[in-house]
Automatic annotation (TrEMBL):
Domain HTH marR-type positions: 21-153
Keyword terms: DNA-binding, Transcription, Transcription regulation
Keyword Nucleotidyltransferase carried by entry: no
Keyword match Transcription: yes
InterPro entries for this protein: HTH_MarR-typ, Tscrpt_reg_MarR-type_CS, WH-like_DNA-bd_sf, WH_DNA-bd_sf
The species this protein was found in: Zoogloea dura
GO MF terms, alphabetically ordered: DNA binding; DNA-binding transcription factor activity
Name this protein carries in UniProt: MarR family transcriptional regulator
Top-level taxon of origin: Bacteria
């Protein structure tokens, strides 16, 4: 595995200076958990969780027309995704349909009830995200997104 950092730069973490509470893994996990909690608090009255919202939105945006595609974009395993889709289907928010061109493929679509729910959820999600970014300037939000994308790029290119 090659190091894509500047050869003159020192590594941010060493065995001697590593502290879990200060690691980017721990901090990003804490941020994700707290954002999810803030969203859950705002959307629970609709009988849906943050995880269900994320899957419903991906299907609505046509980024998850199959369970396999959803697993790739959410990082969820197939067993968990199947249970999530079962719950969304029980709530009549999505439906599964066999592909007419390939019977092995089950396509996912948002139902009318799911489409009707999305406009109620989006403002609540936006509210939670804005809470997380309270007191951040536009430039800081832009920089934060840029830095997070760089981390994602580094991890996607980890084999380079």
């Amino acid at each position: 595995m090659s190091d894509i950092r500047d050869p003159g730069a020192s590594a941010p973490y060493t065995v001697d200076n590593y502290s879990q509470d200060e690691s980017i893994g721990f901090l990003t996990h804490q941020v994700k958990m707290r954002i999810s909690q803030a969203i859950d608090e705002r959307i629970n009255e609709f009988g849906i969780t943050t995880a269900q919202w994320a899957v419903l939105k991906q299907i609505a945006m046509h980024n998850g027309e199959t369970a396999t595609a959803l697993c790739k974009c959410t990082g969820c395993d197939t067993g968990s995704m199947t249970r999530m889709l079962d719950r969304l289907e029980e709530k009549d928010l999505i439906r599964r349909e066999r592909s007419t061109t390939d019977r092995r493929v089950v396509q996912l679509q948002v139902t009318e009830n799911g489409q009707a729910l999305l406009p109620d959820l989006v403002p609540r999600v936006v509210e939670a995200l804005n809470l997380a970014l309270k007191d951040f300037s536009d430039a800081e939000v832009s920089q934060l997104k840029h830095l997070l994308r760089r981390i994602l790029d580094n991890l996607e290119r980890r084999g380079d």
